[in-house]
Amino acid sequence: MILPFLAVIAGFYIYPIANVLWLSVVEPEPGLGNYAALFDTESLRRIILTTIRICVVTTFFSVLFGYTIAYAMVHMDQRKQNLMLALVLVSFWISILVRTFSWLMLLGHNGLLNNGLQAIGVINEPIAFVRNELGVLIGMIHYMIPYAVLPLLVNMRNLDMRVMRASQNLGATGTQTFLRVYLPMTIPGIVASTILVFILSLGFYVTPAILGGGKVLMIAEYISVQILITLKWGTAAMLATLMLFGVLGMLYVMSRFMKLSAVFGGGR
Amino acid sequence: MTLPDTGDLSIKNVTKTFGSTTAVDHVNLEVQRGEFLTLLGPSGSGKTTLLMMIAGFEDASSGDIALDGASILNVPAEKRNFGMVFQGYALFPHMTVRRNISYPLDVRKRPKSEIESRVEEMLALVQLEGFGDRLPKQLSGGQQQRVALARALCFAPPVLLLDEPLGALDKKLRIEVQAQLKAIHDRVGTTFLYVTHDQEEALSMSDRIVIMRDGKIEQVGTPNELYEKPRTVFAADFLGKSNFLERSEATYALRPEKIDVAPSGDLQCAVSVTGKIQTISYFGAVQKLMVMLDDGKCLEVDVDIWRNRNAFSVGQVVDLGWTDDAVTKLEG
Ligand SMILES: Nc1ncnc2c1ncn2[C@@H]1O[C@H](COP(=O)(O)OP(=O)(O)O)[C@@H](O)[C@H]1O
Ligand SMILES: [Mg+2]
């Protein structure tokens, strides 16, 4: 019964991945030349570093804001909490294209914010919010926050609040309770949401292209350029392979932390 | 045991309402220093709510709570210095046993050497030497319960509040831990305010018992006073078993083990009636007879099995008797 499905999965997933792996070592000529290029091509290295830098900053701020939002949500009454959750989920439905262009309209040279600030005389020249790395970060963080919220929310909702009361009863101030008990007990959620956001950020394509104004090149966009325009399939396959193993490595780390969360899971 | 110099808790006319429900209703109670006092009552009688107000997690709607004569209503929970053992223990899952126990001293920033020696002392008190480096997950229920106790006693609180701390343990273990808990109380001399719905637990450990019903205090007394002289039907029924007799407009309580029983014609007693055995239930040391009297009323009688080997069988007609001091006149 499941054999046909396995065949379909193999056909649609395993085969292309294997193909990419293969391409990365045979195009344009057999050998590890594509990988060696990592070490002696300055532009390639810069793209990888830019990607990592943007993803790290995006992840940091998304998780920070996500944590704050999730924390506020679990401390609201049930009705407000459901409303907030609906708002978070709705943002999943709005196309990334729409959201990216909205930022352009809001933050561009003639955007709402710059015009507004100029009108009330706070600034004389428009501030360059977009068409640079800052713009990319704003767009990506905004897009990623809901993804950061969900794992944290699940983690926080499952906490036994009697433990926080116990901490307070034992003489801990609110700050002490947060730092010594609450924060450590939400580490599994923080790790899950960090890795989720980081992996999703790696594949960002539309946002850097639009909000970066062509100045910020990330791996995903570069791969597509290699395939569609310069036709360097070998380089593209090598970068894709690199990303694949990077993601697999992070998923492995995440699975380790998920086991830890079972240890921390309290009485149940 | 020397009397501690603190730990007098007085609860003055305290009421707590949640919307239209009155969880605690004009409760007055003086808890004396060093005392083991138990709040006993069915689920929903307001025991936890009263404890939460004392610990500072709930505000009283009216009334006052004072420690050693000074009101504590305006003292926040983290400054009240009451130890508490929570229902379900509420241990810190990410900390070792040692770190759990040292927590109250850690947050008070006590010197390291003091913390270390105090934790060892506590581990010894609850007989968990050698378990200091485990996580709570790696302990049995009874051991977790003892960690919670050690953690709550570590900073030498004047009063220890315990909310059904043995509820999650199986019966055999519970009896064992009751004895340990009582021994620990006698050693540390802290005032224990203990909440349970288990009457055997209350009887075996307490200096005094407070029976609660619908947020009100039904009766206060030593276990012996409450068992021998219950004032109301509720008190007689909740603490131990009781038969109720209606005699000339009044209700009397009569404990099942205070009834003498003998085959018909054999009994000489102040009061005696005859009846027929309906059922016999076996409990090992005793058997419970349900005896239907001539007027149709049933009495429950406890019989020592060993001293009455093969004396009774279902359907047999027996004489029941009791002395005047075996019955207690009830109010209302
Ligand atoms: N936070 C609350 N909100 C509303 N009602 C409550 C709350 N806490 C307790 N109650 C009500 O107060 C009464 C006493 O509850 P509780 O103190 O938990 O009793 P016990 O501990 O004796 O079982 C119950 O009727 C319960 O439903
Ligand atoms: Mg309760």
Automatic annotation (TrEMBL), chain B:
GO molecular function, a single term: transmembrane transporter activity
Location of the ABC transporter domain: 9-239
Entries under InterPro entries matching the protein: AAA+_ATPase, ABC_SmlMolc_Importer, ABC_transporter-like_ATP-bd, ABC_transporter-like_CS, Mo/tungstate-bd_C_term_dom, P-loop_NTPase, Transp-assoc_OB_typ2
Superkingdom of source: Bacteria
GO BP, one annotated term: putrescine transport
Pfam families, per database record: ABC_tran, TOBE_2
Keywords annotated in UniProt: ATP-binding, Nucleotide-binding, Transport
One of the record's GO cellular component terms: ATP-binding cassette (ABC) transporter complex
SMART domains according to UniProt: AAA
Protein name per its UniProtKB record: ABC transporter ATP-binding protein
Organism of derivation: Hwanghaeella grinnelliae
